[in-house]
Amino acid sequence: MRSRIEPDRQLTTRMAVTMFLLGLVYVAFIAALIVLLESVVLVVVIAAGLLAAQYWYSDRIALYAMHGRLVTAEEQPHLHGVIDRLCATADMPKPRVAVSDTDLPNAFATGRNADHAVVCVTTGLQRRLTAEELEGVLAHELSHVAHRDVAVITIASFLGVIAGLVVRFAFYSQLFGGRNRDQNTAVALVAVMAVSALVHALSFLLIRALSRYRELAADRAGAMLTAKPSALTKVSGDIARIPTQDLRTAQAFNAFFFTPALGPGTAVANLFSTHPSLERRLEALAEISAELGEPGSRTP
């Protein structure tokens, strides 16, 4: 049986192009560091080890950071029941199920592939949504797993961390030892900072562009899977009423969330968001509703 979550060719192409461009950027970055610095090989090896750990243990790291815990069908029968039905409909392996005890109404999927995936929902989400709305959010998260974009966004996001580690190591090695602090050293440090700033900016833009499109792709796939309205409007509206401290805690995981942990922001902030605007998502969902012959709403 073929999965009902069809591959999104545009998403696959965008992921391939993003990873290729990021690869070029970081090869150039490492080449520049080799020219400018000493002991860069050690830093690269350490960074590669951290990336491998992030890739293989991304599910555990995300659950630990969000205080999530795996739950059994006996503990969460309704949640497991919804995921069981969706996975049967989509003809895909059932991921592990987790719950995060926070009032932030959200959900995320993580894991390097479908066989090692975890779908986590918060208690705040479960309290606020109806059964139909929860099904829509979970279908969205399962679409991320089926599209295999979770692993790609994990790797892409972590490359920025590598750049930061390399630059920090270089700065402190120059500050406290290694070379004499002469004019050449100062020039090398300025060059490293300039290169790292450029690398970070390029990485930031590429990742944001990919992340916004993958959310639209998951919205579409999830809506097609359930043939029901999405919970996007309600969940996004509730985000604005969550305490600021809870939002700050969760913002590092925005790229993985169903909806970003952001309160009302400026146009510039929305431009650099990991998610498309609420208006753009509602417009896309209205188009899907029309395809399915369902009445679509264009207002939050």
| Terminus-to-terminus distance | 37 Å
Structural class: mainly alpha
User: Cα-atom Rg, whole angstroms?
Assistant: 21 Å
Order of helices and strands: HHHEHEEEHHHHHHHH
Outline the secondary-structure elements:
Layout: H1 9-36, H2 40-56, H3 58-65, E1 68-70, H4 77-90, E2 96-100, E3 107-110, E4 118-122, H5 123-128, H6 131-147, H7 149-176, H8 183-226, H9 232-239, H10 244-250, H11 267-271, H12 278-292
Parallel strand pairs: 2-4
Antiparallel strand pairs: 1-2, 3-4
Helix pairs in contact: 1-7, 1-8, 2-7, 4-6, 6-8, 7-8, 8-12
Description:
The chain has 300 residues and is mainly alpha-helical. It has one domain. 66% of the residues lie in helices and 6% in strands. The chain has a four-stranded mixed β-sheet, sandwiched between helices. Helix 1 runs parallel beside helix 7, helix 2 packs antiparallel against helix 7 and helix 7 packs antiparallel against helix 8. The longest helix has 44 residues. The C terminus is likely disordered.
